[in-house]
Design a protein that fits this description.
Elements (H helix, E strand, L loop, with lengths): L12 H34 L3 H16 L2 H22 L10 H27 L2 H9 L4 H31 L11 H12 L2 H30 L7
């Protein structure tokens, strides 16, 4: 057992660690992309434009209502076709293949963004309106209010929810193993098939995910304490 998990030619330890690094890379990229989608979706829902609010509502409803694996399949099998269709508009008729990393980041980012939209929207609405009025009374302009009042307060309220979204994003990366991207689950599956020791390698994958989620929890708890500094506790 120890030999199978060792490093080098006779073990799978180095491949599993590389898979963990790939999982972190996809998770971070998808989470950041999801924050962009989430901020845009929240702004659309709160901006007062009925068309943009309707589009944001469709986006969050569809993505949250469809299984995550189906979203990945749709992008994996249809991503290259969509890119080629856009390329033909600009006169390029060649074949365009989208790599598995890009598909994984976009798919998980879309899923993460749908949940981040609601988290950010709720956080913005939790900011007391009186603070905005007080900032206007002090002569602050729109962008100054956004930078000094709305964004810091929204971040403080959104951090717990965004921590949950991050954990979901981290675990959703296991689904992109269907694209053959060499992340934790893919490497565990390959190792299990090669050695006929599925329990060992899937249990090791579970331990790696637990380590990543535990470290993530500690990081977000520290960020929450930092964001709450100076706030009076009940």
């Amino acid at each position: 057992m120890l030999e199978l998990l060792s490093f080098g030619d006779r073990g799978w330890g180095d491949q599993l660690l590389m898979g963990a690094a790939m999982t972190v890379a996809v998770s971070v990229s998808a989470f950041l992309l999801g924050l962009v989608f989430g901020a845009a979706g929240a702004a659309a829902k709160l901006g007062g434009n009925l068309l943009l609010a309707g589009l944001a509502e469709v986006y969050t409803t569809v993505i949250r209502g469809v299984p995550e694996l189906l979203v990945i399949y749709l992008l994996f099998f249809g991503g290259s076709g969509m890119v080629m269709a856009v390329a033909r508009v600009f006169g390029y008729d060649g074949y365009v293949e989208v790599n598995a990393f890009t598909i994984g980041v976009v798919a998980v980012g879309l899923i993460s963004g749908a949940y981040s939209t609601e988290v950010i929207r709720g956080a913005v609405q939790a900011v007391p309106h009186g603070q905005i009025e007080a900032a206007k009374a002090c002569g602050m302009g729109r962008w100054l209010i956004l930078r000094r009042v709305l964004v810091p307060q929204t971040l403080r309220f959104a951090l717990p929810g965004l921590g949950n979204v991050w954990q979901l994003t981290l675990k959703d990366t296991s689904l992109i193993s269907v694209t053959a991207l060499a992340e934790i689950m893919r490497m565990a599956h390959v190792a299990a098939g090669s050695t006929r020791e599925p329990f060992l390698f899937y249990a090791t994958a579970a331990v790696l995910y637990l380590i990543l989620t535990s470290v993530s929890t500690a990081v977000f708890e520290r960020a929450e304490r930092h964001a709450m500094r100076g706030v009076r506790r009940a």
